[in-house]
């Protein structure tokens, strides 16, 4: 299905709803868990899954996600095995499946081949957190040719001029960081309303907010102003700690989904 | 060839290499750094302060020593040593940390972080911070902490906090990851003093510019003592800052051959060496596109060198550019060859080099042999070997 991500946001908008985008590390704690958990998260009320492709040097990630990626790499997870898994589960789910992937991996495999392999497997979009935006256009266009969204990040420190550059380069949605620093859980809900207003002056794309979003209260606070909430470390930690990662993930995401705000 | 000295461009590209492959949070800090640096570079007050510090604190200029007994032993070209081991703290690293320390003060930031491999950059950063009264935290891989315990203690004596990194391969690359993570959350009040010509723009340019004092001095000294530029200059390359510092001043002297020496380690199999320019491919690591040692999926490969300062899977983007342009030739030297050169220079010249530097010496000896006594070769003696004595003892005993 082409442009599944755009379709999901269009449909939610028409229904006056917001989206939940859980992040999981592909292959953590095992490939088997990843395979089963996607369906479970769909049942729990997720709309798009952000699938982190394990990378040896994830500098934007805090200790929880970095350790999960390290463990996945040790157990032999590769971009190829992640794509194989996606190919297998693609027919079983309507969820949007987005790969969060370092540009180091894309550059090494080669942008053309990476996009081709990802699209063939059934990946619906990419988030590339560390690409040099001055050379991002080519990848965005390659992704667009295969119906994949391409999302770049906007930080609290990003200038207005750059916000409009980033928004113009992104398709599907823009990923807004709730705070400076790395991924990880935080105590207080982010105060992002003024920045979301500012960013909306530069783009009509849906806005997803991540980094530090770790409780149902945070999800409620985020989706009051933004279009989607991204929850990563809090979920990955629970999956690592629990004897049954699938059940733990499903229960937590179900709680989060219950606190999504309606669009006003 | 004339364009070789006009890099990087505004996007931080040396040819296709370099750039800024970093999480968005860091971009504003990098922009600020680039802007402040451009202003500082043109500010006579900043230039005068830096020159004064290099002279009266660092102890520059460092001498150019004719290595007479080594020359005689090798029986080829006249070998000269650019003595960065005589700079304050015992290595070239101080040139950069004093420069960036002065920039930190100019930017009004109170805290400094750094990564270190051998500990030389950590010590040089701690030294600069003590001098300027800045708070200092140094990230260091657990494996390097073991290999370089003396430098860990030196940093602490200088008032710095050493943060031991247990993640990944527990060496320089992992220390760099942690320093970048710290900076993402602390950019408002913290400057990251990167120790080599690596990382996102503008670091490769700034570090090169602060290190080019080595090459500028060397050029003058060669004009005075040798009657002109040498035939060959040899320098070791980990991230590549000492090599960039000496090479850059001679880039337009097309008759001077430039040789960079990477760590050949135990063998030429991936994982047993640290030679991205010789055996790697272009890829992205720590914020820039450059030659790198990775597996087929872009995961950073394990690397090995007996020298902690060379034990790094990446290299500065300008070196990648020089390699592709054919301006600098890159080669490797094994752990064993470096150890032999360490002993040889100590015995023949009374100069104990750092293990990193010993790689340049080993390569230079091979090169000088094939040259005539009328020709000249300069080795950048990037650092002294006191820090390595324990490790060398362990390695020599290990060879039995």
Please give a structural write-up.
The complex is a heterodimer of chains A (264) and B (400). Chain A is an alpha/beta fold. Chain A has helices spanning 4-14, 31-44, 63-74, 79-89, 103-109, 111-121, 137-145, 160-169, 193-200, 216-225, 233-241, 245-258, and strands spanning 19-25, 48-52, 96-100, 125-127, 149-151, 153-154, 174-177, 207-210, 228-231. Chain A has one domain: Alpha-Beta Barrel (TIM Barrel). In chain A, helix 2 links the parallel strand 1 (19-25) and strand 2 (48-52). The longest helix of chain A is centred in the N-terminal third of the chain and has 14 residues, at 31-44. The mean pLDDT of chain A is 95. With 400 residues, chain B is α/β, with parallel strands linked by helices. Chain B has 15 helices and 14 strands. In chain B, the strands form 4 sheets. A 6-stranded mixed beta sheet of chain B has the order 3-4-14-9-10-13, with helices on both faces. In chain B, strands 7-6-5-8 form a 4-stranded parallel beta sheet, sandwiched between helices. The A-B interface holds A 55-62, 66-67, 70, 73, 78-80, 102-109, 129-132, 134-135, 152-159, 162, 166, 177, 180-182 and B 11, 19-25, 27-29, 31, 167-168, 173, 177, 180-181, 184-185, 187-188, 281-287, 289, 294, 296-300.
Brief rundown of the structure:
With 264 residues, chain A is an alpha/beta fold. Chain A has helices at residues 4-14, 31-44, 63-74, 79-89, 103-109, 111-121, 137-145, 160-169, 193-200, 216-225, 233-241, 245-258; strands at residues 19-25, 48-52, 96-100, 125-127, 149-151, 153-154, 174-177, 207-210, 228-231.
CATH architecture of chain A: Alpha-Beta Barrel
**What is the number of E strands of chain A?**
9
Helical content of chain B stands at 40-55%
Low-confidence stretches of chain B: none
Please list the strands of the largest sheet of chain A in the order they lie side by side: 5-4-3-2-1-9-8-7-6
Low-confidence stretches of chain A: none
What's the order of the H and E elements of chain A?
Answer: HEHEHHEHHEHEEHEHEHEHH
Say what oligomer this is: heterodimer
Largest sheet: number of strands, sense, barrel closure of chain A: 9 strands, parallel
Rg over C-alpha atoms of chain B, rounded to the nearest angstrom: 19 Å
In DSSP terms (H or I, runs of 4 or more residues), the helix count of chain B works out at 15
Output mean pLDDT of chain B.
95
What is the top-level CATH class of chain A? Alpha Beta
Silhouette of chain A: globular
- Biggest interface, which chains? A-B, 43 and 36 residues
Radius of gyration of chain A: 17 Å
User: What does the main sheet of chain B amount to?
Assistant: 6 strands, mixed
CATH homology-level superfamily of chain A: Aldolase class I
**In percent terms, what proportion of residues of chain A is strand?**
5-15%
Distance between the termini of chain B: 49 Å
């Amino acid at each position: 299905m082409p442009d599944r991500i755009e379709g999901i946001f269009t449909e939610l908008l028409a229904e006056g709803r917001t989206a939940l985008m859980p992040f999981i590390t592909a292959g953590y704690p095992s490939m088997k868990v990843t395979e089963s958990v996607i369906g479970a998260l769909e049942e729990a009320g997720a709309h798009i899954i952000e699938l982190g492709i394990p990378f040896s040097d994830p500098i934007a990630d805090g200790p929880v996600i970095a350790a999960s990626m390290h463990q996945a790499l040790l157990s032999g997870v590769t971009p190829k095995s992640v794509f194989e898994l996606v190919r297998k589960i693609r027919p079983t789910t309507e969820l949007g499946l987005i790969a969060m992937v370092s540009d180091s991996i894309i550059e090494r495999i080669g942008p053309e081949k990476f996009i081709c392999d990802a699209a063939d497997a059934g990946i619906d979009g990419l988030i590339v957190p560390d690409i040099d935006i001055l050379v991002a256009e080519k990848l965005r266009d390659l992704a667009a040719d295969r119906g994949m969204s391409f999302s770049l990040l906007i930080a609290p420190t990003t200038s207005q001029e750059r916000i409009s550059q980033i928004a113009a380069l992104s398709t599907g949605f823009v990923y807004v960081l709730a705070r400076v620093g790395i991924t990880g859980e935080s105590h207080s809900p982010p105060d992002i309303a003024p920045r979301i207003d500012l960013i909306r002056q530069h783009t009509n794309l849906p806005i997803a907010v991540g980094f530090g979003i770790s409780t149902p209260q945070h999800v409620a606070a985020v989706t009051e102003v933004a279009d989607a909430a991204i929850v990563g470390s809090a979920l990955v930690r629970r999956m690592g700690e629990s004897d049954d990662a699938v059940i733990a993930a499903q229960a937590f995401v179900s709680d989060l989904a219950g606190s999504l705000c309606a669009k006003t | 060839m004339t364009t070789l000295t006009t890099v990087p461009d505004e996007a931080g590209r040396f040819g296709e290499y370099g750039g800024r492959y970093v999480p968005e949070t860091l971009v504003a800090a990098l922009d600020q750094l680039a802007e402040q640096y451009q202003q500082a570079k043109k500010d006579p007050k900043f230039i005068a302060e830096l020159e004064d510090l290099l002279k009266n604190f660092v102890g520059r200029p460092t001498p150019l020593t004719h290595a007479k007994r080594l020359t005689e032993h090798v029986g080829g070209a006249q070998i000269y040593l650019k003595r960065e081991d005589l700079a304050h703290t015992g290595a070239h690293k101080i040139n950069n940390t004093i420069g960036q320390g002065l920039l930190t003060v100019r930017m009004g930031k109170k805290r400094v972080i750094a990564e270190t491999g051998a500990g030389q950059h950590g010590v040089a950063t701690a030294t600069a911070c003590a001098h300027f009264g800045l708070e200092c935290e140094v990230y260091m891989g657990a494996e390097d902490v073991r290999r370089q315990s003396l430098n860990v203690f030196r940093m602490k004596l200088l008032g710095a906090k050493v943060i031991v990194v247990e993640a990944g391969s527990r060496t320089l690359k992992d220390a760099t990851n942690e320093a970048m993570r710290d900076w993402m959350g602390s950019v408002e009040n913290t400057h990251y003093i990167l120790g080599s010509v690596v990382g996102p723009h503008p670091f490769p340019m700034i570090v090169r510019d602060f290190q080019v004092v080595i090459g500028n001095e060397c050029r003058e000294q060669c004009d005075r003592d040798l009657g002109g530029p040498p035939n060959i200059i040899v320098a070791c390359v980990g991230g590549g800052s000492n090599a960039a510092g000496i090479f850059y001043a001679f880039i337009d002297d097309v008759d001077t051959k430039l040789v960079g020496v990477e760590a050949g380690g135990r063998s030429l199999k991936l994982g047993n060496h640290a030679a991205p320019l010789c055996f790697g491919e272009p890829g992205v690591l720590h914020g820039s596109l450059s030659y790198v040692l990775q597996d087929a999926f872009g995961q950073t490969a394990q690397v090995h060198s007996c020298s902690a300062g060379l034990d790094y899977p990446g290299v500065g983007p300008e070196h990648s550019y020089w390699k592709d342009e054919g301006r600098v030739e890159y080669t490797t030297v094994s752990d064993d060859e470096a150890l032999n050169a360490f002993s040889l220079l100590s015995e023949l010249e009374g100069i104990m080099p750092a293990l990193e530097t010993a790689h340049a010496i080993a390569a230079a000896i091979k090169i000088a042999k094939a040259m005539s006594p009328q020709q000249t070769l300069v080795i950048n003696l990037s650092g002294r070997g006191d820090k390595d004595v324990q490790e060398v003892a362990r390695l020599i005993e290990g060879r039995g």
